[in-house]
Amino acid sequence: MDTVVDVCCRDSRRGNIRIGPAMGREADLSRPTFRRNFLKEADNSVFCPPGEIHYNKNTITRIVAAKGQQMDIELTKEDDAFRAEVRRFISEKLPRELAERETVGASGERGALRRWQKDLHEKGWVAVNWPRQYGGTGWTPMQKHIFNEEMAAANAPRLSPFGLSMVGPVIYTFGNEEQKKQHLPGILSGDVWWCQGYSEPGSGSDLASLRTRAVRQGDHYIVNGQKIWTSYAHEADWIFCLVRTDETAKPQEGISFLLIDMKTPGIEVKPIISIDGLHHLNEVFFTDVKVPVTNRIGDENKGWTYAKFLLVNERTGIAGVPESKRKIAHLRKIARQERLGDGTALADDLAFMTKLSEIEVKLTGLEYTNLRIVADEVAGRPAGPSSSTLKIVGTEVQQALSELAVEAAAFYAMPFQREHLMGIANEAPVGPAYAVSVTSAYNFGRAASIYGGSNEIQRNVIAKAVLGL
Amino acid sequence: MEFALSEEQRLLQDSVRRFLEQNSPLDKVRLAAGNTHTVQRSLWAGASELGIPGMLIPEDFGGMGLGFLDAAIVYEMFGRYVAPLPFLGTAVMAPLALMLAGSEAQQEKWLPKIAAGEIIAGVAVTESIGVREDAGVKAGKGTLTGKALFVIDWAEADLYIVADSDHGLHLVLPGAKGLSRRALDTIDKTRSVGELVFDQVSAEPLPRSSADAVARVIDAGRVMLASDTLGAGQMMIEKAVAYAGERKQFGRVIGSFQAVKHLCAEMAAALEPSRSLVWYAAHALDEVPGDARLMACHAKSHLSEVGRFVARTATEVHGGMGFTDLLGLHYWFKRIGFDRQLLGGPELVRLEAAHLQGWAA
Questions:
Q1: Between A415, A446, A456, which is nearest B323 by CB?
Q2: What is the three-class DSSP state of A28?
Q3: Pair B162, B172: CB distance under 8 Å
Q4: pLDDT digits over B117-151, tens only?
Q5: What is the mean pLDDT of residues B163-191?
Q6: Is A314 a catalytic residue?
Q7: Which of A49, A145, A277, A385 has the CA that lies 20 to 30 A from B323?
Q8: Which residue of B has its CA nearest to A230?
Q9: Does the beta carbon of B188 lie under 8 angstroms from any beta carbon of chain A?
Q10: Closest Cα in chain A, distance from residue B260 (Å)
């Protein structure tokens, strides 16, 4: 088999996708000329629903989606020009070393990440989804899509989401002018790093039961309690925290949203070493921590509303569609290079390539769903519970891809090479470079179906909020 | 028809269970995992008192003369307690290689020492399963040259059994001139593997070596890994069920939610049938030669898949705690992950099974 081909065309009579002699070619049926030619040749075509995968001895044909006349997503001249501009920027500014480390799954060096964010910020491209008035791009959904695609294709590392995707939108939506002035510039420039104080030892899925208390004392709150699973708390400058400000109200009605400087006395950070043997997670302890009342977002006891707003954004981000797309491209490259015991390429292994294609179909569905959600949001229809679907499918795709990477690496999935994972190794790794991180990624990737609300909880959300069960 | 463990086998398994429960609790495993390439001598001495290193070795050579099913149910317990011991190479694959291919003199020299738990025997056969990159060992006149990866029970081995690229098996001593050894840290910190590089290293061939002998050593290893996964998976289910019965959210234990109940039930439904598969595969190694290789492939690939499903699902049930070092569930998770890749991942092993059945060219 030589290639995996996308075929997308809607047959108007049956509503099915039609594939025929174009199988085995690079087919882009969103181009009108190709579509015409294809339909002319398609006398012997077969009909099959979207999502199906067809293979014959030379090709796997992936039926991606019905891109037909019903939906116009052809690029305009302006969009083409925009794509060229994004590519130019990336080729000028993205440090090669960052892209390379991203490709093999090692985390980028902090300084380089900060410089990359600065460059994006200078260009005004750091906050893709923010409104222009707060330093965002104000782009059309198509421009955002193009930008995300190009960034992922170039292996640009994802910027830390805690400021840009999580607390930033909460601040500009619910915060006051002072708070916007104080916090948004640091988030945009990357000078201020944030972490998320949501989960507690007794409050994971049941987040609203959280017990970290903030008691009002004059112009301050006195905060006592503990947060857990706090990613990068050991590197963060600020934490946004859910705290209980009313013990007597219903759990959801006694929560406030506080911004806390991590340098405040009484905050202690303890590492949690995770399954990959590395330190990303922490426990954060608060003992009589004095937080100015002016650090509260919005109204007292209304924090749950802001918390949920943030969770929707978090879940959409967690889906990680562009990253998964990049990983698929990477896996396909690996499959062409990797030789099996008998010397054939992994890319000739039908079983492997079928699995890869199946994942890609799922991902393509997500990609367009993401686009649809962005379009809905622009039109003033908030995403709401559909973000739960994105979270479930997105994390399942991530986990399935990490599985396939382990499969590709075979024996070389076994070694644990800490120095290489941390990017501080001097000698060559055991096995191919891409294999260094596959098992750590697979192992730590187990977290994806837990964090941001476990996938079991997301199913409850869908059952209740979408299906009315 | 009888399809169950005998009374003796149940007693054997129970005694190993008790021994490991008492002598290899998680905090000991944790300490051992910090020293993967050091043999846990006192634990191994305890296992030797139970006769474990010599269980497959004939009584004439000081062993117990038991069968592969016995070895499988013992290794199941090792998996259950993620025991940091050199069982696979030293007690199974190396003695089997010596019994199948060694001369009488070689057997007399080495088997009693293995049976007594006096020596550790490493096994280098990875390249007989699949060669990647530049690995592989070539035999010259009484010497070996090349590289062997993922050598089982690599640490502190007193003896290595090495397969060359022409199905020859050889004895190599760790101090041999031209031999360089490198420890390999893997995801599983409870068992040691390493790399051997041979530069004209003098080696003693096992005179009755054959492709079949190498394959039978690998078959046995695969069944043992399947059994290890079975034991580790069983323990993960028990831990998940216990956690689901303790952890409270929304004012009730999470095990009372159907979503969590079903996760647990699916694990049990997946694992229990595979127990029978492992038993039969182990039984076939001794008693049904015509089925043995295929069953070894089936057991290895199936338990790899079931094990992965159980490992993940049990981790999911534990929520965030599941992937912390603190709880230690990851020792089981990684043990299962390592079992999956060692001696051939399931994809490769399934292909082998297809070849054996004449389904693939």
A1: A446
A2: coil
A3: yes
A4: 999 999 999 988 876 667 899 999 999 999 999 99
A5: 96
A6: yes
A7: A385
A8: B320
A9: yes
A10: 8
Is A206 in contact with B250 (CB distance < 8 Å)?
yes
How far is residue A416's CA from residue A248's CA, in Å, rounded to a whole number? 50
- The neighbour count for residue A256, using CB atoms within 10 Å, is 25
At what angle are helices A303-318 and A386-409 packed, to 10 degrees?
40
Cβ neighbours of A395 in B, within 8 Å: none
Distance (Å) of CA A116 to CA A147, A188, A201, A235, B146? 15, 12, 35, 18, 45
Interface test with B, best of A411, A434, A451 (most B CBs within 10 A): A411
Q: Is there a contact between A443 and B337 if contact means CB atoms under 8 Å apart?
A: yes
Q: Residue A8 has which token pair? A: 């997308």
Identity of the residue in B186, B195, B325 whose CB atom sits nearest the CB atom of A416: B186
pLDDT at A453: 87
Test the A interface: residue of B193, B266, B341 with most A CBs within 10 Å: B341
Q: Which two tokens stand for residue B132?
A: 């990647």
DSSP bridge pairs for A19: A46
CB A240 within 8 A of CB A284: no
Q: How far apart are CA B258 and CA B249, in angstroms?
A: 14
Helix (H) or strand (E) holding A403: helix A386-409
Question: How much helix, strand and coil, in percent to the nearest 5, is found in chain A?
Answer: 50, 15, 35
